[in-house]
Every structure is written in structure tokens, then in C-alpha cells.
């Protein structure tokens, strides 16, 4: 999730083999029947099986000749009379047991294919096959949307202090190579560039060419995270004659963001010099050491990667009011990515399966398009491609985007994207009309469950980004990544203050043992409720309509959480 990531080591070889067509993925078994259970406990009692069968009456997504266009904008269709307590019925069907079954399928896909599910690898292909098989059994006709992009790959990386004290820094702990770093092996003195280590530590370090007026060409530029992008800092350093760059974290307190730990960023486009990120503590130590000299050795480059999105439409519903429900399917290259973002993919998949079953007799008013994005970890590639190829009718015909990324973080907070901007008034991200209504639906749902929620910023770090940049309302859920839980959050949500929401974020340990089961159960129910709400509404969401004021399902919803108290 979030930050464009790096393809490393053996995963790079696997991706090259797959692209060349000389080896295929090993597919995980998905089974012919799936158990449905009645609660969210670890000791589950089987209550039967879902009526999911092969085939069905689903249609190919989109219109002939333009398979990904939701259709021309139009007036809402005639409301479908809702089923009483339809949300409760759907949420009861979307069980933790079934969601976790999908996580096991994705873990099997990774285990059978080199330990990861990164885009362009056999593990991702196997993951895609699993998703497609499950959708077909539920009556959908999933299709692939292929795309290619340039993927950054690190072969090797090293950072060490050569003077005044020999120190070897550990990759992934003390430093990380920034995406699109240049390659090179340089040893040079370190020169700090307009850094600020006191007070609020606000800085424009490296943001302007004038910052390098006293910079000695050939030095390694030491810059601080601050008011401009990492790419601008690196480009200015290279223009000033820097042989390399180290960008350290800012060292200030920012809600839901770690400004002290390891900087793990992207330059946005290829750099001519090697660039790494590091922690505030290491940057501060380097800046305070006289005569410090570093060796920076990066072997990296860019390769073309082929990937795909998986799209599946509900067979009925107004195509001029399409609700795109998305989660990214790919992992980072170092692990299986079960929380990031197997959790979101599994919740969306199970919602799709049960929605097809529970709405057979009461067709949806709006079409729902379930989307499993590829290449998110390499820069939101799949979702960007999807939105880029829509014409104006396609953009106008997209009612909303619901995005679900990391729903089972071990030290979770139930974060809801800040669609009205009230929590992050200084945010520069667009908030299209209707995003506030999406936020409200999630907040009111959790409140009805007597569960706390908290806002999180529209930061552009997940697949909703392309939608809000094109004036499409968006919102969704997130349970936390590398950010550190505050004392106030721990008091409200439980867990441990001072620790990351997901200690295994972008690490090998993000496996089946990295899931907060009760939290995932709660978040999956919220996914189901929101999907049904926006699939049923006839509100003019993009015109500022109030979804709550419409006659839509669920009616007289039972908002009692069905999870097990023992899982608190």
C-alpha cells in the first residue's frame, strides 16, 4: 500500500521469467465449496455452504466497443424496493471465516511462487487466478484489463560511514533506496543542505536551487524531509553537482504519519544520482559529525513490467451510475502482503460473492464494478490506468469510488478517509463533492455499531487518488500502516501506544499471523454495508445529495456487531 515500492533480489528474476513466458505460476487450490459460519470467532461452527456455483448470468463489463466505460451520465433510475434489514442480511453473510479463507488462498499463492504476490510475478498471476475463480463461482464474468509500466528494481544497496568512524548501515532498517534512484558507487564527504534540527523543524531543505549556493560539487547532499517532493530535492542536488543524496525524516509530530522513522519514498522519475532515505536520528547524527564521509553503493534500474486489473460487474444496475469498489491485489516483493493488501482484496471479494447471492430477488439500482488493482505498490499503476482510459462519459458515469486498503492491521485504528476536509483543513488533495457523504456513511455505520472511528487524510497514497484527481467522489477505510499509534488512539481503540499500526508493514512478516481478526471482521462488515448503501441510493451524490434522506436499503438496519467479545 501507499508508497511505490521496489522489486528486489529473487523476485526480480521471477518477474523476468514470467514476462519472458518461460515459466508459469503455481496455482493455489480454491475448492469447490466455501463454508459459511455464523460468527467471527476463532472457534467457528459450520452452518452450511454458500450457494455459489459456476456460470451465472453476469455480463461482460462495459458496453460493446468500449469495455471499460460505465456509460453516459443520466438521471437515476426507478428505485428498487429494498428488502427489510438487507444490510444486516448481507453483513451476516460476509463472515470472518469466509474472508479469512480468501486470505489463506492468497497466502497459498505466495507460498507456491517465491513468497510474494508482487505485480509481474508468478505469485500475482496465481492471486489473479484465485480471485477470478471465486468470482466466476458466484456468477460474475471477470475480465482482465492489461497494462504495462516501468518498474524500478534494486539489485543491491549499501550505505556505510567511512569516516570518522566506520559504520555499516542496514538496508530496510537504517536506510532504503528511493524508488527511481540512480545507480552508482560513490564515496564522498557529506554536506548538509539547509536543514533545521530545532523548534518545529519545518524546512525547505533542498527545495530551491539557492539552497546549494555553498554546496561543494562532488559531495553527498544531506537533506531533510520537508515542504517539497523528494524528486525536487534529488533533482536540485544533481544539478548542483552532488554525487549522491541522503534524505532523512523531518523529526516533527504529524497526526497519522511517522516523521521520525525510516523514510521510504519515491522520486517520481529516474534520477541521475543514487538517493536513499533514512531516519531522523541517523540524519541528525550525520549532520552533527565533523568530517563525516559516506559510501553510497546502489545497483538499480528500470524494467518494463506487464500486469493487469481484474474487473467484474454486477449483472444489473444503472451503468450510468457505476460504483467502483476497489482494492489493490499486489504485494510488495519482500513478502506475501496479507494485510497489505490481501485484507482489502478479501473483504471486497467476499462482499461481491455475497452481494450476488443476497440480491438475486431484488436487483441493485446502481451497477457495482468490483476492481482488483495491479501495480499499486509500484505507484498506483493499475488504478491510474483504469481512470486514464475513461472518456468524459466514463468519468461522468462513475458515481463513486470506494477504496479499501489494509483492513486488518494488528494495532489498528478504524480510519475513515476525511471526505469533508474537517480533520485536515491544510490538505491540498482535492475532495470532490460527495466525498463528504461517503465519509458520513462510514462514520454513522461505526457509530451505530458503538465502534469508534477516526479520520485519515486524503494523502494520495492509495488507489482512490486517480478518482479524486478527476472529480469523482471517493472514500473508504484503512486501519493503519507504518504510522505510530498515539496515546489518545490507544485509549479509544485499544492496542499499544508508541508502536506502528502494522509492525510488519512492507515486510516479510506480513503473513496470516499479521491480521487482527476481530478488526478485520468489523471492517469487512463496514465494507458490505457501504457497498450496498451506494448500490441502492438514488441520491445525486455528485451534486451534493444526501444519501441518508433517500428511500434506500438498508431499511430498519440492525446495527449490532456480531463479532466475538473474546477477540477484543
Which labels suit this protein?
two-stranded antiparallel sheet; globular; 568 residues; 13 helices; 17 strands; alpha/beta; single chain
Total count of helical runs of at least 4 residues: 13
Structural class: alpha/beta
**Inertia-based shape:** globular
Query: Oligomeric state of the chains?
Result: single chain
Helix content: 25-40%
Major sheet size, sense and barrel closure: 15 strands, mixed
- Kindly provide the radius of gyration, computed on alpha-carbon positions and rounded to a whole number of angstroms: 24 Å
Whole-number mean pLDDT: 85
Report the end-to-end length measured between terminal Cα atoms: 26 Å
* Number of E-type strands: 17
Q: In sequence order, what are the helices and strands, one letter per element?
A: EHEEHHHEEEEEHEEHEEHEHHEEHEHEHH
Flag low-confidence runs: 3-24, 27-83, 549-568
What share of the residues does DSSP label as strand, in percent?
Answer: 15-25%
Can you describe this structure in just a few lines?
This protein has helices at residues 9-20, 86-93, 96-111, 122-137, 230-239, 280-287, 338-358, 381-388, 392-396, 435-448, 465-469, 487-493, 517-536; strands spanning 7-8, 35-37, 46-49, 143-163, 167-169, 175-177, 184-192, 220-224, 244-248, 275-278, 293-313, 318-328, 366-373, 398-404, 415-417, 454-456, 474-478. It has 568 residues and is of the alpha/beta class.
Amino acid at each position: 500500500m501507499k508508497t511505490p515500492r521496489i522489486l528486489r533480489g529473487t523476485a526480480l528474476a521471477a518477474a523476468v521469467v514470467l514476462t519472458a513466458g518461460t515459466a508459469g505460476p503455481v496455482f493455489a487450490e480454491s475448492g469447490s465449496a466455501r463454508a459459511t459460519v455464523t460468527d467471527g470467532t476463532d472457534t467457528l461452527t459450520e452452518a452450511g455452504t454458500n450457494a455459489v456455483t459456476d456460470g451465472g448470468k453476469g455480463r461482460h463489463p462495459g458496453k460493446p466497443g468500449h469495455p471499460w466505460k460505465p456509460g453516459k451520465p443520466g438521471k437515476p433510475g426507478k428505485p428498487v424496493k429494498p428488502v427489510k434489514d438487507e444490510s444486516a442480511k448481507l453483513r451476516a453473510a460476509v463472515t470472518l471465516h469466509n474472508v479469512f479463507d480468501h486470505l489463506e488462498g492468497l497466502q497459498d499463492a505466495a507460498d507456491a511462487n517465491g513468497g510474494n504476490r508482487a505485480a509481474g510475478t508468478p505469485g500475482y498471476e496465481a492471486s489473479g487466478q484465485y480471485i477470478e475463480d471465486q468470482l466466476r463461482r458466484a456468477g460474475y464474468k471477470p475480465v482482465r484489463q492489461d497494462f504495462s509500466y516501468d518498474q524500478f528494481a534494486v539489485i543491491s544497496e549499501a550505505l556505510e560511514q567511512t569516516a570518522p568512524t566506520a559504520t555499516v548501515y542496514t538496508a530496510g532498517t537504517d536506510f532504503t533506496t528511493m524508488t527511481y534512484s540512480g545507480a552508482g558507487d560513490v564515496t564522498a564527504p557529506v554536506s548538509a543542505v539547509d536543514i533545521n534540527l530545532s523548534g518545529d523543524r519545518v524546512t525547505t531543505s533542498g527545495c530551491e536551487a539557492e539552497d546549494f549556493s555553498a554546496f561543494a560539487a562532488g559531495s553527498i547532499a544531506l537533506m531533510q524531509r520537508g515542504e517539497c517532493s523528494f524528486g525536487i530535492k534529488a533533482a536540485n542536488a544533481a544539478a548542483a553537482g552532488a554525487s549522491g543524496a541522503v534524505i532523512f525524516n523531518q523529526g516533527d509530530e504529524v497526526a497519522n504519519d511517522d516523521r521520525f522513522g525510516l523514510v521510504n519514498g519515491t522520486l517520481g522519475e529516474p534520477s541521475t544520482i543514487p538517493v536513499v532515505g533514512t531516519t531522523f536520528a541517523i540524519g541528525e547524527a550525520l549532520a552533527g559529525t565533523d568530517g563525516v564521509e559516506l559510501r553510497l553503493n546502489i545497483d538499480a534500474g528500470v524494467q518494463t513490467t506487464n500486469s493487469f486489473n481484474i474487473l467484474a460487474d454486477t449483472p444489473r444496475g444503472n451503468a450510468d451510475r457505476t460504483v467502483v469498489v476497489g482494492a489493490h491485489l499486489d504485494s510488495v516483493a519482500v513478502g506475501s502482503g496479507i494485510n497489505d493488501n490481501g485484507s482489502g482484496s478479501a473483504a471486497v471479494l467476499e462482499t461481491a460473492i455475497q452481494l450476488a447471492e443476497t440480491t438475486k430477488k431484488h436487483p441493485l439500482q446502481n451497477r457495482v464494478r468490483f476492481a482488483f488493482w495491479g501495480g499499486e505498490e509500484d505507484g498506483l499503476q493499475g488504478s491510474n490506468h483504469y481512470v486514464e482510459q475513461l472518456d468524459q462519459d466514463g468519468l461522468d458515469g462513475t458515481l463513486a469510488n470506494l477504496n479499501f486498503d489494509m483492513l486488518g492491521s494488528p494495532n489498528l485504528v478504524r480510519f475513515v478517509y476525511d471526505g469533508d476536509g474537517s480533520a485536515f483543513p491544510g490538505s491540498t488533495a482535492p475532495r470532490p463533492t460527495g466525498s463528504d457523504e461517503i465519509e458520513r456513511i462510514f462514520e454513522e455505520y461505526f457509530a451505530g455499531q458503538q465502534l469508534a472511528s477516526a479520520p485519515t487524510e486524503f494523502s494520495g497514497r492509495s488507489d482512490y487518488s486517480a478518482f479524486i484527481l478527476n472529480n469523482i467522489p471517493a472514500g473508504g477505510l484503512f486501519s493503519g500502516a507504518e504510522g505510530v499509534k498515539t496515546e489518545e488512539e490507544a485509549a479509544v481503540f485499544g492496542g499499544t501506544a508508541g508502536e506502528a499500526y502494522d509492525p510488519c508493514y512492507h515486510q516479510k512478516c506480513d503473513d496470516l499471523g499479521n491480521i487482527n481478526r476481530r478488526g478485520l471482521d468489523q471492517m469487512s462488515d463496514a465494507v458490505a454495508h457501504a457497498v450496498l448503501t451506494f448500490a441502492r441510493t438514488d441520491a445525486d451524490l455528485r451534486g451534493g445529495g444526501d444519501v441518508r434522506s433517500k428511500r434506500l436499503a438498508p431499511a430498519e438496519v440492525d446495527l449490532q456487531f456480531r463479532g466475538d467479545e473474546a477477540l477484543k
